[in-house]
Amino acid sequence: MKTVRDFVASWRSGRGSRRVTAGWEAGRKRLLRRLLEAHGSKPLDQIEPSWIWDAQDAAAADGCSPATINRITAAALALIRDAEASGDLPPGTRATFLGRVHRERESGENRMIAFDLAERDAIIDTAATFCPWYHPFIAFQFFTGLRESEALGLKWDAVDLRGRRLTIRLSRRENKVEACKTARARRTIPISHAVAAILASIPRNNPDGWVFTTPTGAWILESNFCRRVWHPLLRATRPRPQTLAFRCTRHTWGSLAALSGASTADAAAYMGTSRDMFTKHYERYLGSFAGMDLEAIGGGGTLRKVQG
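User: That's the sequence. What structure does it adopt?
Assistant: Structure tokens below.
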């Protein structure tokens, strides 16, 4: 069996019906350089999704852009496709490998994990230079604990900067907008001075009034955002597991609220959920009062003013 390095040395991507230019081919090989440095001497048929994560971590540490980091996965899949076509890997290898990539990514994304305060602040600080347009969105999520769909459904007419309040009424998932389904989710919450400053810094460039948009004013699609911005940001910041879902920003707020000594009822109301659900997710943090000022978690010390 060839090693990964042996195959790449003789690789001619796109043989037959998928011929590509020499420049394209050289670009693919450059993307795989870090994978080869760590795993090039291993047999080709032992390739693992973790090799991609290793290469992406190394690229992030070298300061590569999010787009470059994401293209490492595409280059690895192209390599497997062409190794399968040349007979160096058995038929079906690419499909099996792609399924493993998705399963391993989702297994990390679906875990209920909260970042600690140092990790949260490191991610926010890194976002300011790594993805400056999305820095306000990321900081907002960490400081409010809203559901992703609630933040994406926020319009400027629901923002009261002078009174430092948000009215949560809409939910947006991908291209679908609907009213929040439960009475608990429909609420008015206070925001900290930090969150008010974040919102005040955002350009109002969307004609339909959405607060959080892409740089062109279009909707943020959560799936694209996670793939192109969030996961590369985590790899650049290097907290523990680096494939966590964006919803972990909400879990971080919930855990810090529990640690701060906020009552279960107040914190649950702020997050738009039930006391039972809050306790289920964050009971391991309850009862360990750390004396933390609620302004540090973005609540401004006013959780009791939540209105349904």
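The two ends are 64 Å apart (CA to CA).
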